[in-house]
Design goal:
The protein has 422 residues and is α/β, with parallel strands linked by helices. The protein has 17 helices and 11 strands.
Length: 422
């Protein structure tokens, strides 16, 4: 092997990977690592990939290289890269421990060609620090409005490309693996409404209502449903849907922060895929606000992604890729911490369940839909952003399968004690 600065990419790879690693790496400098007949073939297409990894030796370096085409996998489907991701993750047992010497050698080898600031994908958002410098303190109303818009106000047509005709976000609930996505999403909505046990004429508040599928489903049961969202695109779509169904007397969707809802005494509240935006440090105040909005004996159904294991002092699970590309300021809590917050806000938690496997299956459907509608997705949001979303959904599916993240439903009620009988 070459010493000092004169190193090829293939030689650099050999410092970090066992010779038996079942992968073929072909690099821009003509060097290689691994057997030519390996099932997994990776391409380091340009020097920018090495500069990215030098500047950001973490997920951001890999993500930027992949999005910009500097790192690629042979035969990958950009709309559904799950198979390639699964193979890449399987290589972890072949990774050699990093040493100061190996890191120094690789760094010197890259810098021997001079320093170059690597490009940043156009789809990457500002860092948390940059947002704070602009005055967007995490989870304030102003910041929440901007970050929700970043995620949702792209194109309703783009979301339809992978969500399908139900236009229903977050995980579906499948009776079996052969159930269609549309039927499973309807199943999820029925499950939530059945848990809330609302009757015709009673009032439901749907916080973070998305494109309106829950509000519509509730109104079809005769329930008076109000949905709030910070996304103008979602609200416009939802209210058009309500009008088409002729449900204006029962259903309404507003562009409104949940902290600004003037009504109260709701019979039920559902929060479906909303808590990921709230911030773990705000969970307690969020549930206290739900308590204020509900009437005595009212029910709350909270449905959210969670981390699998508690962190000290309720510290959130965060992810730099998600923060820059998907969910700015998003973080996750563990189920035990969340249940404690609900309890401390005054609720009785009467039912809780983990739907982890259902979300993995939902995401596989979404990736398949994105693959089938790839050309339109690229037309709607551009190649880079469509590629980001294919990667994001496939990575989430894998993370659910590996039990890195879960999704829980918590059903709670405000219990009013009966006076003690003597």
């Amino acid at each position: 092997m070459a010493n000092g600065k004169a190193m090829t990419v293939g030689e650099m790879a050999s410092l970090f990977l066992d010779p038996a690693t079942p992968v073929r790496i072909d690099a821009f400098d003509g060097s290689h690592f691994g057997p030519a007949d390996a099932d997994l073939k990776v391409k380091i297409a340009t020097p920018n990939c090495m500069y990215q990894l030098l500047a950001h030796p973490n997920e951001i370096g890999i993500v930027r290289s992949y999005i910009l085409g500097d790192f690629d996998v042979d035969g990958i489907d950009y709309a559904d890269p799950y198979p390639a991701m699964r193979k890449l993750v399987s290589l972890s047992k072949y990774v050699r421990p990093l040493t100061p010497t190996s890191i120094a050698r690789v760094s010197a080898g890259i810098l021997s060609h001079g320093f170059k600031k690597p490009p940043v994908p156009a789809t990457e958002g500002p860092s948390k620090f940059a947002r704070i410098k602009r005055g967007l303190m995490p989870h304030t109303e102003k910041a929440d409005s901007e970050t929700v818009s970043f995620h949702y106000d792209m194109s309703n047509e783009f979301y339809a490309d992978f969500l399908g005709s139900s236009m229903t976000y977050t995980c579906a609930v499948f009776d079996n693996e052969h159930m269609s996505l549309e039927d499973a999403q309807a199943n999820k909505l029925r499950l939530i409404l059945d848990k809330l046990d609302l009757q015709p004429g009673q009032r439901l508040l749907d916080i973070g209502c998305g494109w309106g599928s829950m509000v519509i489903t509730a109104a079809r049961r005769g329930i008076k449903a109000l949905g709030v969202t910070l996304s103008k695109e979602q609200a416009a779509y939802a209210n058009e849907w309500i009008a088409r169904e002729g449900l204006q007397d029962l259903a309404e969707v507003r562009v409104q922060d949940y902290r600004e809802v003037p009504e109260h005494d709701f019979d039920g509240i559902c929060s479906i895929g909303m808590m990921e935006h709230v911030g773990v440090k705000n969970y307690q105040s969020y549930f206290e606000e739900m308590f204020r909005l509900l009437k005595p004996m009212g029910r709350l159904l909270n449905h959210q992604i969670t981390i699998s294991h508690d962190k000290p002092h309720g510290k959130p699970g965060t992810d730099e890729f998600l923060d820059r590309y998907i969910f700015p300021d998003g973080d996750l809590g563990a189920p035990g911490f969340i249940e404690s917050c609900i309890h401390d806000a005054g609720f009785n938690v009467v039912h809780q369940e983990n739907l982890r496997q259902h979300y993995a299956l939902t995401l596989h459907h979404w990736n398949q839909n994105l693959s089938e509608h790839w050309d339109d997705a690229v037309k709607q949001v551009g190649f880079e952003r469509a590629k980001v979303w294919g990667m994001y959904m496939a990575a989430c599916a894998l993370n659910f399968e590996l039990d890195g993240i879960q999704i829980h439903q918590f059903l709670s009620l405000i219990h009013i004690s009966e006076p003690t009988r003597h």
